[in-house]
Amino acid sequence: MGGRRGRDRGLHRRRRASRAGALTLVVLLVAAGLAGYAARRHPDLLVAAGVRAGAPAAGPARPAMTRPAAPPVPAAGRVPPGISYPARGTGAFRTATGVGAVAGRSGELLRYRVAVEDGIGNVDVERFAREVAVTLADPRGWTGDGRWRLQRVGRDDPADFTVLLTTPVTRGRLCADTTDRYTSCRNGDQVVINVARWVHGVPHFPDLGRYRQYLLNHEVGHRLGQGHELCPRAGGPAPVMEQQTLGLHGCTPNAWPLVDGAPHSGPSGQYDDPIPAED
């Protein structure tokens, strides 16, 4: 989410608060008539992340349904499986292999990879990479005003930065702030997305999908050289570079750098909001 003055603007400020205990969320959604489910994994050690290699984590177990009186399960494919994760993953990553089209009509071209930490369950890395690419290619995003072009590349291609979906403990290590397991950050060429926020969002951002778009745009914005901003007008949309994960300060939630077709920003600065210790 951010950094203290004098350090990388993508690193979050250190807080006295720390997460109280490991949080594990397991949501099991079993599609009616579906015999089984398998997700391809692409084991890969992400050298840029400075993490050790490890064997791919086994997928979560699927216990049998024990509540016959529950409402009918929606048809196969209509409800995605829930994401499960430990507080600490393996530290190794599987990287998406797909290559996307260049998003944006003009400006500097940056290429990025997408990777998911082993230990995070029910996240297909290729599907997650497509979700990242859709957000970063949206005309309301960083490629919408001609300053930047972005392209998703595979694990063996040269890249300017990597979007990482990580467990909370790994987030703390990659962001160089082990006391914070709540927020996300950018550190160097790593855009670190905390799976806890990807799963739970924040209370004051009622639309989880919209929050995820904000989260990606905010942290990638740091990689593009953007610093934190303040709410410019009470009741108006927050700048995407406001630390909306921690508070809105009179603004309304906003996921995009462009609002009504024009860049939307606020005064440079950041609020002294506390970082929650747990979800």
From TrEMBL:
InterPro entries named among the record's database cross-references: DUF3152
This protein's record includes keyword Transmembrane helix: yes
UniProt keyword terms in alphabetical order: Membrane, Transmembrane, Transmembrane helix
Domain DUF3152: 79-249
Pfam families cross-referenced by the UniProt entry: DUF3152
Transmembrane segments: 20-39
Domain of life: Bacteria
SUPFAM superfamilies: Metalloproteases ('zincins'), catalytic domain
Region of interest (Disordered), ranges: 57-77, 258-279
The keyword Zinc belongs to this UniProt entry's keyword annotation: no
Biased composition (Low complexity): 57-68
Protein name as catalogued: DUF3152 domain-containing protein
